[in-house]
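Checklist before submission:
- one chain only
- standard amino acids only
- sequence pasted in full

Submission:
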Amino acid sequence: MTTTPTRMPALFIGHGSPTNANERNRHTLAWQEAGRHLPRPRAILAISAHWYRSGIAVTAMPAPRTIHDFNGFAPALYEIQYRAPGDPGLAAQVAALLAPSQVRLDQDWGLDHGSWSVLAHLFPDADVPVVQLSLDARLAAPDHYSLARRLAPLRDEGVLILGSGNLVHNLRTLRWAQDAAPYDWAVRFNDWARSCLLSGDHESLADPFRFGEDARLAIPTPEHYLPLLYTIAQQHQTDAVSLLTDGIVLGSIGMLAFAVGSA
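Returned file contents:
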């Protein structure tokens, strides 16, 4: 006798600074709350802004390392180890789903902070296997969306798909005061994208530069935006989008997080 797996939600988390890994603020508390309400996944497929490379790769080792891919932070941040197991079988399945695109089964990368800083709040016991998929720097945003659509069967097999980036991410324009007001262009772009999310307008989100100069300021480089496309690409016709948290910090870092399906 078998049990039909629960269709897992898909999440996008605006992860912000690496320091969110061990901070309690309104955003990380929202991630924790979401984690408490998630059905337990068989495994997690994470797509992080911080594995942006030429070509597609998926981590295929049984025990991925914790990568501290940042500099200049307090020593305690470098001591964090997120020791979730890997899942080589899921890695092979991902490669098969993405065919005919060539996917390398990676034995070197691990989990970067885009993944583990969020997972430390969603699944603090690190007891769910995690596989990480790279972002192919050769592809345009609509191509990433099309690629991500091929991953949709995983939700019905107990796999939670997690995109981690930032809807608005412009480091050149940061305002360092903790209570800094957001730029007008950041608010406008965030509002536009949120409206598209809630109305199911994937076509616009997959081509964000149609929004003009505000989009170019919000997305000066694509890697933090692209994980959002991997999340919305999992949306079925009957799936609602629920916001987990929102807001812009330091003037130009968007912390919007949402779930596709129940969370």
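Reviewer check: Residues 10-260 form a domain with the Protocatechuate 4,5-dioxygenase; Chain B fold (CATH 3.40.830.10).
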